[in-house]
Amino acid sequence: MPLPNDEKLIALSEEILKQFEAIFGPHPGFRPAHAKGILLAGVFTPSVDAASLTRAKHATQASTPVTVRFSNSTGIPLIPDNEPNADPRGIAIRFNLAEHVHTDIVAHSANGFPATNGEEFLEFLSGVTQSDPAKVQEFVGSHPKALAFVQSITPMPSSFAKEKYFGLTAMKFTNMDGVSRFGRYTIVPEAGEEHLDPAEVASKGPNYLFEELAERIAKGPIEFRITVQVAEDGDNVNDATVHWPAGRKVVEFGTIALTGGVDDDAREQKHIIFDPIPRLDGIEPSDDPLLELRAAVYLISGRRRRAAPAQ
């Protein structure tokens, strides 16, 4: 994917990447955020209702191979899984439609985001990483979006496979009849959600989530349902910090079943660049300003990651 032809957007993306490096330190070859992760492979099967929402290829064919990355938060590659800053957890799903043809979903385990646009996000990064805890509390308390985001972070999960993930930016779904509706993804674990209390967290090792994931997938597939909450007229579809009413219609989009790891995981993680913009017929981005910004940040950092020496 090419970089957008927008000098202001690129400059803002560079500023955000500089801020990540200032917070987490330089780690060439790793992501500036969600650095610690693992890739799994599996299959997506659309639901019977998916085609009523979109004519996208993976919603209308029998099945599609997927590559899924689970991750901890922060840009620290060796962050312990039981470190508080490792939340929210991330999931990225790549639907492999053909050779060099794909579309992605990028989501995390907090049903919220601290900013409407890139400028607000840069301010958030600066505000919550001050050395004085009192100043951090003051910043969060005086910024409603930041406070709502912090409050949306769930306790630590017992497993990546027992956590729910939210795609916060809306997409425009268009079906075969040309009917378009906006919606947001939620990825729901078939094993159910399970979170740990502080005593349980303290008893866990620094890699407990990754070790548990390996043990779990050795016993059988890890499954998730993908759903889409559909907006109604008047709902704000261009602001990731705004929740729609809980009563909005939810469409079952399909299921993913993960069956194993990928060959040469470290190399593949370094190579793959997920894209928050769908870029395929039947699913288009909304006008949420975070989408173009995130795509630029991912692409710039991804190109640098690929060029870095092997770690």
Task: Provide an overview of this structure.
This protein is 32% helix and 24% strand. By secondary structure, it is an alpha+beta fold. The protein has one domain (7-110, 153-307): Catalase HpII,  Chain A, domain 1, CATH 2.40.180.10. β6 and β7 form a beta hairpin. The radius of gyration is 19 Å and the shape is globular. The model has no long low-confidence stretch (mean pLDDT 95).
Please outline what is shown here.
By secondary structure, this protein is of the alpha+beta class. The chain has helices spanning 7-24, 50-53, 57-60, 118-128, 133-142, 144-152, 198-202, 208-219, 265-271, 289-307; strands at residues 37-46, 64-71, 90-98, 101-108, 165-166, 171-174, 180-189, 222-230, 250-261, 283-285. The protein has one domain: Catalase core domain (Catalase HpII,  Chain A, domain 1, Beta Barrel).
The CATH topology is given as Catalase HpII,  Chain A, domain 1
Q: Helical proportion? A: 25-40%
- Poorly predicted runs: none
Fourth CATH level, the homologous superfamily: Catalase core domain
From the coordinates shown, what is the CATH architecture?
Answer: Beta Barrel
Tell me the β content.
15-25%
**Strand count, sense and closure of the main sheet?**
10 strands, antiparallel
**H and E string:** HEHHEEEHHHEEEHHEEHEH
Structural class: alpha+beta
Mass-distribution shape: globular
Mean pLDDT: 95
Instruction: Please tally the β strands and state the result.
Output: 10
CATH class: Mainly Beta
